[in-house]
């Protein structure tokens, strides 16, 4: 279980309140698919993923990225119960989708990179540390149901 200090919770929630999930979601998932191309195998139904331009402009990537960030928003709301919050998604990704749990860590790292790009000087080292902690907690919670 991940424990967050009051300061960490405040840093995470105040930054997250400024995130535009509509825009950032597609960028984060798109970057994951470009930087780690082997992750594309989980998105065969998304159509053309043949180039950076195709991926970043793909409406299905944008829509699923938004869905991913909305789920991450639940982590921000339920930082004290990440395993419970992500129990269903952990089962889905393990049993039905067969996603390698290492991909959750990769996605979290891409998320932190995009937040750093978007928020610049506001993304201070303590804010980064808090965000790294929550994305690691989410990755662990998503991997929790794996056998």
In short:
This protein is mainly α.
Model description:
By secondary structure, the protein is an all-alpha fold. The protein has eight helices and no strands. It has helices at residues 6-16, 21-35, 52-57, 59-77, 82-85, 87-96, 102-119, 125-143. Helix 1 (6-16) crosses helix 8, helix 2 packs across helix 4 (59-77) and helix 2 (21-35) packs across helix 7. The longest helix has 19 residues, at 59-77. The two termini are 18 Å apart. The mean pLDDT is 90.
Q: Keywords for this structure?
A:
single chain, 147 residues, mainly alpha, 69% helix
Largest sheet properties = none
Molecular shape: globular
Supply Rg.
Answer: 15 Å
Low-confidence stretches: none
Order of helices and strands: HHHHHHHH
Q: How confident is the prediction overall: mean pLDDT?
A: 90
Tally of extended strands? 0
**How widely separated are the two ends?**
18 Å
Secondary structure elements and their pairing?
Layout (H helix, E strand, L loop, with lengths): L5 H11 L4 H15 L16 H6 L1 H19 L4 H4 L1 H10 L5 H18 L5 H19 L4
Helix pairs in contact: 1-8, 2-4, 2-7, 7-8
